[in-house]
Design goal:
250 residues, mainly alpha, Fic-like fold, 10 helices
């Protein structure tokens, strides 16, 4: 099913890896784009350039909400943390998920790093999230499925299904989308794949993928296909960078 991705990943692993400042420059650029898109999907009004100025130049953007500044800083810090977790081969756990959420939700001093204690719903959508009191049990079950059932799955199916199941539990009052997308990249990077950056322009498609699973049919294929296309593109882009670096070094 994922033959093309597997072939590209094999090619990627055959090339000399980037190290030091070269890799850091790529990840710095990705962090800006990723922070912009992930926060914009959730309603941030910062542009990509403004996001760069906030998280790289420590600047404040006039007439933009303080919360959107804090969200950009929080997402940057959370992604740096996720990179370290992946590099250290950290095992995913509830405490890791809560730590990531704590960094993401910088602007919410009461809710960050804590499962929700109120019921939530999406206005106008036919989606029913679990009751607040069942969230801890459902998160424990999700991690058991992750550790056991998902262990031997292809990485694309694994990250797509985990993301769908996580978002369907909606364990936090706010920040579920950003945290879920960071967890998706945690798994990809832990397995040696480049991270993916779901774009604001694909917001409607992304929400359709979520709602297709959260509906009565629990259709996971739209999300699997979306993740596959993003992973494939990320690998292709990384291959181009590595090939250019290889050719320049000759």
């Amino acid at each position: 099913m994922f033959e093309n991705v597997d072939m590209l990943f094999q090619k990627l692993n055959s090339l000399p890896m980037l190290k030091g400042s070269s890799l850091q420059r790529i990840m710095d650029d990705f962090t800006v784009s990723y922070t912009y898109n992930s926060n914009a999907i959730e309603g941030s009004t910062l542009t990509e350039y403004e996001t760069y100025m906030v998280i790289k130049q420590d600047m404040t953007i006039a007439d933009k909400p303080l919360r959107h500044h804090l969200d950009a800083i929080g997402h940057r810090d959370a992604f740096l943390y996720v990179q370290k977790l992946a590099s250290d081969k950290t095992i995913l756990s509830e405490s890791v998920i809560k730590d990531i959420h704590y960094l993401v939700l910088t602007s919410d001093y009461e809710g960050k790093g804590r499962y929700r204690d109120v019921d939530v719903y999406i206005s106008g959508a036919d989606v029913v999230f679990p009751k607040a009191e069942s969230v801890p049990e459902k998160m424990k079950h999700l991690l058991k499925v992750y550790e056991n059932t998902m262990r031997d799955w292809h990485i694309i199916k694994k990250v797509a299904l985990f993301h769908l199941m996580f978002e369907s539990i909606h364990p936090f009052i706010d920040g579920n989308g950003r945290t879920g997308r960071l967890l998706l990249n945690f798994d990809l990077m832990s397995d040696g794949y480049p991270p993916i950056d779901i774009k604001l322009k694909d917001k409607n498609r992304y929400y359709y993928c979520l709602q297709s699973y959260q509906g009565a049919d629990e259709n996971e294929m739209p999300m699997i296909q979306m993740v596959e296309s993003y992973v494939q593109e990320a690998i292709i882009q990384r291959i181009k960078v590595l090939e250019k670096a290889r050719d320049l070094s000759r």
